[in-house]
User: Fold these one by one.
Assistant:
Number 1:
Amino acid sequence: MANAGKGLEGVVAAETALSDIDGQQGILSYVGYSIHDLADNATFEEIIYLLHHLELPTESQLASIREQLAQEREPNGFVSELLPTLAANAAPMSMLRTAVSASSAKDPDGWDVSEAANYRKAIRLCAVFPTLVAYYHRLRSDEKLIPPDPNLSLAANFLYMLKGDKADDDTARMFDTCLVLHADHTMNASTFAARVCAATLSDIHSAMTAAIAALKGPLHGGANEAVMKMIKEIKTADKARDYIIKKFANKEKVMGFGHRVYKTEDPRATHLRRMAKELAEKTGDPHNWEISQEIEKTVMDEKGIYPNVDFYAASVYGYLQIPTDLFTPIFACSRVAGWSAHVREQYADNRLIRPDHGYVGPAPRDWTPLSDRG
Ligand code: CMC
């Protein structure tokens, strides 16, 4: 029983109506809808609605949430003043963590913690995350800020604010699908961190800040950036096999592979693999795709481990010419939908989350005066 419960494996930390996973069969659903149906059909705005209302929106409900999201894209004045300093000094995930924390100071709902205010704050946070990332990037690149375009979807608007050009419909739709795929994933580390924070009855901005902090690590959301760094290091597909075998010989993990819950293909990876292939063909640049294929094959041959959501997301974002250090912030731009819904779910039926421990320190012993210590 040495490692029983290590990493809380198998522990049910909370009940949720938001998403479900069958790790043996590779099934993921949001509020009962298969991720495959959602990836093929839903927009990210529909997913935000679904996670917060537990039903798909009608046409008028969708129009209304799209409008609310479009109206809330600008950061408040305090954060806008802070962004140039963060762009000059902070890495992207540190910027996001600090900017989201700072957003609480001037939120229009202040410290109102009513259910209605928390919903408004949640929508505001979903709307503003992409703007923070895009503004930050343009500020650090000494480029003019592109104000949000309320006529564009959240996905298309992000690409527009980041790059200054409007993406074609296929590209915008592909990015939208990436947001759909990353929006929620049961009791992952960042969602759990958000729920732990909310369960103390701390505020929603604090819970989002905790979630961003947890997502940042390379065992979680930071893996997508690590995958792109690996692809760049490998350089050509013919070098991939040796590179991976060497990593295993050194007992290193290959980022973008393995999962606590999935013991088969992560269903999100199926869609991201398809998109990476399509983009390789569309751009006429098979580089990332070929290296990724070779990595996947080698990891499967050597260890029988499947790629997770982060593996092909890296290639897709690479093909969309998104800077590598923005991959994890983009993950956050999607996952904030799930985090905020989980936090509202936690508040609705709260109990402090306070696990137990296994003590492994010395047995009780006598106090040693300073003069008698070794
Ligand atoms: N490369 C090589 N070996 C691996 C990998 C990997 N990526 N993942 C798991 N293993 C091996 C691991 O070495 C261990 O082997 P052994 O039993 O011989 O010691 C076994 O598989 C179980 O791994 P574990 O680390 O105990 O599993 P875990 O459930 O604690 O960790 C994980 C899950 C996702 C942290 C881990 O698979 C990992 O570190 N993967 C690489 C990082 C990564 O891609 N993270 C993204 C996770 S999915 C999306 C997200 O959350 O962002």
Note: The chain has a mean pLDDT of 97.
Number 2:
Amino acid sequence: MRRVALLGATGSIGRQALEVLAAHPELELCALQSLSTPLDALSEEHGVAHAQVGGDPIELLERSEPDVVLNAVVGFAGVRATLWALEQGVTLALANKESLVAAGELALAAQSRGGGLLLPVDSEHSALHQCLAGCDAATVSGLVLTASGGPFRGRDRSQLTAVTPAEALAHPTWSMGPKITVDSATLANKGLELIEAHWLFGVPYASIEVVVHPSSLVHSLVRFRDGALLAHLGLPDMRVPISYALTYPERAATPVEPLDLVGLSLDFEAVDDDAFPLLGLARAAGERGGTAPCAYNAANEVAVHAFLEGRIGFLDVAEVVEETLARIDAAAARDLDDLVAADEEARRLAAKGLQPA
Ligand code: MG
């Protein structure tokens, strides 16, 4: 029996994780956490003794003694649980990409002390993890992340000035929560994933490409030095990477629709950096290092929130992030306190950037 603590239980990943857990009797749900949604009904339905709404997740994790922490919290709020699991050597199934973006260096240091497994739940990174299984790192020449392109693929800048939150929330292939769906529309999500891939797989930014793939059937690829590419294919269904991480390395049977290959064609396009500058800004923040990725994430969270509330336009999201990054010093974080301070400073600068000049 594997005991699973589910953080972010009421979000999109949380709900799909509950489906996966229900299909696998060898997995026991031992703890539930949500940011603000009540959990009474869910705890009763799943017979979970430990549940917590809001507050510090560490106390809940220490009480419930999980074998696996599925961290599906949205945003920087997921950092504490990520660092705790890695430090304790508890297997971390990570859907909270922001924690690795903001705290990549601290997370890897915690993992090397704790010695536990870090399994990505992001579909692209799960794909890369699977393509890289059993490979000698020296044979890998690069990673290719695929991006659906979001609902505004093919539009130029002038066609993006007036788009609404409702339009940004209509994702063509993946069904996800509002923050990540807007991030998919701006390509900030791919920017976060680029930084996430760098930390997860130890590959330099210059060797990580991003390519637009509208049907989201190829979830990512690995290039090898002999010219071979390994790709991971499947229907866009988050239950697959969730199941992979929770049952690793058994790859337990999961009731998903099979992908019909007949008649299938795979299209790829270049990213339009002019219309979607947040990907390039993420690459620059990653290469700059220190707390620059943390600031990128913080400014983006503030700007996306303001966009969803109708306070700024779609293209302003990238501007707020760019201006924030121009104003920070990006010094490295020695510990979580430094990181929290860098996150707060970037949020303050981003909020200032939202005011009319
Ligand atoms: Mg993803």
Note: The pocket of magnesium ion is lined by residues 122-124, 193 (CB under 6 Å).
Number 3:
Amino acid sequence: MDISELNQTIGEIEADVAAKLAVTTAIDALRGYETAIVGKKGSLGSLIASIKDYPPDQRGGVGQAINEAKQRVQAKVAERLGQLQAEHAAKEASQASTFDPTLPATPRPMGSVHPVTAVQWEIERAFERLGFTVEAGPEMEEEYNNFEALNIPPTHPARDMQDTFWLKNGMVLRTHTSPVQHRSMLKFGAPLRVIVPGRCFRYETIDASHENTFHQVEGLMIDRDISIPNLIAMARTLLAEVMQREVELRVRPGYFPFVEPGIEIDMNCQICGGSGCATCKRSGWIEILPAGMVHPNVLRAGGIDPEEYTGFAFGLGLTRLAMMKFGFRDIRVLNAGDLRALVSPRRLGGPTIPRRQEGATSTASCDSTS
Ligand code: FA5
């Protein structure tokens, strides 16, 4: 075969290869085909054996032509092989995937809420239905609002009952949510219906039912002809609604300088059922809702005429109520950041927990100082 015949043969082999690659879809067949072309006994490979038949001055050029053809064929096979492998992998991936874009969207798993927050929302909803406004006040409070405005002058021994954290700027971490009584009276006047959920702080010896940081819900209703029976009826309804059953209540006299008369409403301990445990200090009762008729001095300090209006106020122990509702024996669990304490929405008996929106009309802030 002279040089021109050789070049023609190489051209035919390459054309044949191109046609064959275009129709081959099986990876194994492709590998076998490559061997059949460039292998020692293949159509192109066997040409190498013929190099010795050419005159010595032509052998170099013949060898180079065959080798270059061999490299072109190998490159084309490799390119086609890559294509087939990619198609194969894509097909396998699509078969393995369970994703079906035509299915309806699945609901996203909901987050959890803290038990105290869960009970707070329930209380807010219940009171909003009764026409109460949800108020907020500052945690860093003026001494006057925390004490004096509530009929607790500087030398009053009742201050010892609520020992607190004093700040260098002369303010206090509020010991209760009651200062917002005063703020609300100044803000809205009478008649008035507000509740104030919030965090309180006390310099406290910690035990199963006492924390240095805990939550209360203040309640204040001022109108004409408000009396203690209104207060007790409201307390009974509220606690039954939160606990989702009738609870046994005990009413006894209580002393708070900002109410007259003052009462303590206790709930039978839901941890031990009233038989006595560490949570209720073996008494069978949990102090949950101290309350009373707003003292005339407090009404006056808030700019309300005690001759015209009366009102009741209460300071619900929100953290303790959450303990009772969800069966926490020890209050410390609720401040410990233990994720196991969180409440799944399902445990609350509903798929969603509506949260009041920031700036909603029912939520106003009373945190201006007075
Ligand atoms: C008060 O704080 C009054 N401001 C409540 C009040 C408001 C009375 C309006 C009358 C009218 P007391 O100190 O008892 O009261 O606290 C109220 C509730 O908060 C308690 O019944 C208890 O449930 C809860 N509480 C008090 N101290 C702690 C504490 N250290 N840890 C957890 N809960 C507490």
Note: The CA atoms of residues 33 and 352 lie 64 Å apart.
